[in-house]
Design a protein that fits this description.
Elements: H1 2-25, H2 38-46, E1 53-54, H3 71-80, H4 95-106, H5 111-114, E2 118-123, H6 125-140, E3 146-150, H7 154-162, E4 167-171, E5 173-174, E6 179-180, H8 182-191, E7 197-201, H9 214-227, E8 230-235, H10 245-248, H11 250-257, E9 263-267, E10 280-285, H12 289-303, H13 313-322, H14 325-355, H15 363-367, E11 372-374, H16 379-389, E12 391-392, E13 398-400, H17 409-420
Parallel strand pairs: 1-12, 3-4, 3-7, 7-8, 8-9
Antiparallel strand pairs: 2-10, 5-6, 9-10, 11-13
Helix pairs in contact: 3-13, 3-14, 4-13, 6-7, 6-12, 8-9, 9-11, 14-17, 16-17
4'-deoxy-4'-acetylyamino-pyridoxal-5'-phosphate (IK2) binds near residues 37, 126 and 236.
């Protein structure tokens, strides 16, 4: 009895030492800074004001400010219902979904698809595609770095930082003209060491809404060829720039025509409204089929210890829609509908500001494209919008036009006018 209680005492004593040690393990962990984009939504949700407006995160809303599930998605879900098993997908994800997704980026009749020169895997949406590529870049080009536009989607910096690759920046936005700094961009391309990696937004640049023209893309592509640079396209908004996914793939097609070997991150978050399903695709165009097989196997090997294989449901929705001509047509109409509503809100916001007699030029609101409008406001003005008018904008200072509706555009214009009129 005495022996048992002595053993118990010793064990308790040992476990309390271990307990104390495990408690102290995390004592030095400080809270992480709030995400500059998703943190805005948290603040918006916590605000009880009936006037509040969320133009922070780039998530499409209908004209009543409500999230949208596309009709084509509803129809695909009806078809899938009952036929779905919950088995694992392969490490590279749904082959059918990937096949259809490549057609959107590389073209319906792409010779590269026919020749099996593209290494492609299903990814955890666009973020996952970028991260998988960054890890791949680190593993096979460990001494390389990535050139990132100024500004860019804030998470790009986190992604390449966590993949432990050095980052350089290149000129992109010209604050005075509120357009593209084409001269600065071309200089940076020319001055980067030969064979550098560049991150390019394929269309509807986030956060500026400023894209190069077709002619400018041709010049960029030419200069990339001269320098032997590698273009990694992040295409999170295909369809949101022009309303037509085919037109929005123009930059990629120009690079393909010019014989570049490129990488592409695709996402269905925005253009199919599948935000939380986390469905996308990473592809790397290779020299031949043998290389593509090798690259794909390495991408899968990177995925395996991270998340093993991607989720099945969103992939099945996408392959059902894109694999059926009627559903695909329905999708194309719905993408155009979303892009058109945003274009309409750009016009309405500009008109409202002009009607209020704003002395400033708001031309850039209708000139910029895609989901975002780089407002040209200062951090102080944006701060006033939030504090005095309950209008939530990300720290990038760009408005997500997807959150603007006929119901709130007047209120928004008035608030913007009030905080900018004395500038
Ligand atoms: N690339 C760009 C340029 C993006 O804007 C986004 C989406 N941004 O909005 C949501 C957010 O801030 O998280 C992505 C990639 C990634 O989108 P997803 O991973 O949702 O496909």
């Amino acid at each position: 009895m005495a022996l048992r209680s002595a053993i118990l005492k010793k064990a308790l004593c040992r476990s309390s030492v271990a307990g104390a040690r495990s408690m102290s393990l995390w004592r030095n962990v400080d809270p992480a800074p709030k995400d500059p984009i998703l943190g805005v939504t948290e603040a918006y949700l916590a605000d009880p004001s009936p006037d509040k407006v969320n133009v922070g995160v780039g998530a499409y809303r209908n004209d009543n400010g409500k999230p949208v599930v596309l009709e084509c998605v509803r129809a695909a879900e009806r078809r899938i219902a009952g036929n779905l098993n919950m088995e694992y997908l392969p490490m590279g994800g749904s082959v059918k979904m990937v096949e259809e997704t490549l057609k959107l980026a590389y073209g319906e009749n792409s010779e590269f698809i026919k020749d099996k020169r593209i290494a492609a895997v299903q990814s955890l949406s666009g973020t996952g595609a970028c991260r998988l590529f960054a890890d791949f870049q680190k593993r096979f080009c460990p001494d390389s770095q990535i050139y990132i536009p100024v500004p860019t989607w804030a998470n790009h910096h986190n992604i390449w930082r966590d993949a432990q690759l050095p980052q350089r920046t290149f000129h992109y936005y010209h604050p005075e003209s509120r357009g593209l700094d084409f001269a600065g961009l071309m200089d940076d391309i020319k001055n980067a060491p030969n064979g550098s990696f560049f991150l390019l937004h394929a269309c509807a640049h986030n956060p500026t809404g400023v894209d190069p023209s077709e002619e400018q893309w041709r010049e960029i592509s030419y200069q990339f060829k001269v320098k032997g640079h590698f273009a990694f396209f992040d295409m999170a908004y295909q369809g949101f720039a022009s309303g037509d996914p085919e037109r929005d793939a123009k930059a990629i097609r120009i690079f393909l025509e010019d014989g570049h070997l490129i990488g592409v991150a695709q996402s269905y978050a925005k253009n199919m409204g599948l935000y939380g399903q986390r469905v996308g695709c990473l592809s790397v165009l290779c020299e031949d089929e043998k290389q593509a097989v090798a690259v794909k196997s390495q991408l899968q090997q990177l995925a395996r210890p991270m998340y093993s294989n991607p989720p099945v449901h969103g992939a099945l929705i996408v392959s059902t829609i894109l694999g059926d001509p009627d559903l695909k047509n329905m999708w194309l109409k719905e993408v155009k509908g979303m892009a058109d509503r945003i274009i309409g809100m750009r016009t309405a916001l500009r008109e409202n500001l002009e009607k209020l007699g704003s002395p400033l030029s708001w031309e850039h609101i209708t000139k910029q494209i895609g989901m975002f409008c780089y407002s040209g406001m200062t951090p102080e003005q944006v701060d006033r919008l939030t504090k005095e008018y309950h209008i939530y904008i990300s720290l990038s200072l760009s408005l997500s036009m997807a959150g603007v509706t006929t119901g709130n555009v007047g209120y928004l214009a008035n608030a913007i006018h009030e905080v900018t009129k004395s500038a």
